[in-house]
Amino acid sequence: MENLDALLHGFTIALSGNHIFLMVIGVLLGILVGVLPGLGAPNGVSLLLPLTFGMQPVSAIILLSCMYWGALFGGSVTSILFNIPGEPSSVATTFDGYPMARDGRPTTALATAFGSAAFGALAGVVLITLSASWVAKVALAFGPPEYFAVYFLAFASFVGMGGSPPIKTLVSLALGFALAAVGIDTVSGSVRLTMGIDELVKGVNFVVAVMGLFGIGELLIAVEDEFHVKAISSKVEWREVFRTLIHLPRYGWVLLRSAAIGCWMGITPGGPTAASFMSYGIAKRFSSRRANFGKGEPEGIIAPETADHAAGTSALLPMLSLGIPGSATAAVMMGGLMIWGLNPGPMLFIEQKDFVWGLIASMYLGNVVAVILVLLTVPIFAALMRVPFFIIAPLIVIICTVGAFSVSNSYLDVVLMMGFGVLGYLFKKLHYPLAPLVLAIVIGDKAEDAFRQSMLMSRGSLGIFFSNTLVTTLVLLGAALLVLPVIWQTIGKMMERPALRP
Amino acid sequence: MMVSRRSLETATALLTGAFGAAVAVSSLGNGIGWSAAGVDSGTFPFIVGLIILSGSIFNLVQGWLQARDIVLRPSELKRLGLLFIPAVVYVGVIPLIGIYLASGGYVFGALAWHKRGSLVFSSFAAIGTALALYLIFELTFQISLPRGALGDIIGF
After folding, report:
1. Which among A175, A193, A398 has CB closest to B129?
2. Of the residues A162, B121, B153, B155, which has the maximum number of CB atoms within 10 A of its CB?
3. Same domain, B38 and B85
4. pTM for the structure as a whole
């Protein structure tokens, strides 16, 4: 097995003292941003990004990815103990996690969540181990039209399956494209969309956008609600942890189904949030204990947690092998890859074997580290929740400001960051999805280049997107995903109408 | 003062729509369509601008037709203002007094406002914040943070 050899080699890279140390730091920082409601995984990763510029790429990605795992776990802690989702993707965990903790079983709720989360993550990593290099091999044969078709598919699946209003998703996506186009055009060298501001020639940096959208935007949302922390005992009883974990296989079917939903939503850029909601919904519909959902049903914790982590992990598969991130956080990491001088996509598997397999190996280790650390530190981080919001809020504003400035030593970036903050708040409040916006900022240029190169190849004929089976299939699949929400809505309305009659 | 979902939807749609229109108009200057060098550099942004514009018009109509439920009550608006206005002031004074002084002042102000009285603690927290920024960014990662016009005057 070629992949297993490569993976073992990866372990020799990931298992150095330095990297284990980075994993611990990454996971702890991740739990921290996961627990704090104003900060999330994409924001935390982008805050850390400027600090990784001087590092080896493999060390940098281990630090960032471990922060991601930590944030995924941290988000569940506050969902369960305080009914406050630290991450958007752990909202569904509050439905049953909090009631179970409130009824005096916080340890069971936490252990159930972490156990199924670890299973979901494992499913994602195994999927990456087995198929990433195969996908990359297929993708090596891709030309510009195939690439554009894949990008199209990715964006179409956002609009069709993201769960937000389709037109709002479309606007969000197109805004990202426009922002990506600001600055010097890579093909012709002409300057675009600077609107008379000379400094914008360098373009709008995605780190600045992410910090505003997620950091400041999230903060403004969080401050609206009066912050009442209803403390539940956060002491972890280890006997109960092991008992819960041993009983977890009883829910094997729920685990497998949720992991499959998560992996699918991670690879197609549906993202962890959509995955967890979808998985919860399906679990509720098909469960024999449906009436118990919302009152502390274990399946109600297992389903969203497994899907959340499976999606978060497998989102790195398309990022590594195709150069298309499957989630907002993966998009930020991919931006990092480009800054470190790597070219995300199939060539990575040939030119940067150490990087790829070091990362994959670190995903196995990082998740183990995360489970252990999160169990050990639950009481500490739970205590952190009692730090009043008026202390945390200015600190987050300062971190975002300094972070935005440090990207390219520019004050304009700080002003832009605040602007993105307002936009992020409005979008969040009105259910515009943010992930497509970030995704488009990061890969908008590449999608445009692929389109223009295809047009050059075909001398301006759109027929090139139907020139072979692969391209045609991808384009048609994308088109189907685009019109699906319309069809579903129409069917839904037609089904509703007869029911309305008395 | 209260804000309805309707007005918030409308404002957002107008904002994105104006941006879309600006993008489309400004792309015209780069040339749209097909030329000897392939697809002109303004084409893609032009289409994107049109998508934003038309999507915004759809959202505008949709938002206008929506129920006028209240999404921001006075108490929420007040809390929002109490966070946002100091944050804007903080960012606004950075070019004048630099990031260190501004951050320290921001933390001091936030603490003093909420914990009326314990000024000593607030001062320590403010100095601690500025010091932490200096140690982390300036010393460890060698990123020079702005000192503002004041920094130029005193030569820091």
Report:
1. A398
2. A162
3. no
4. 0.82
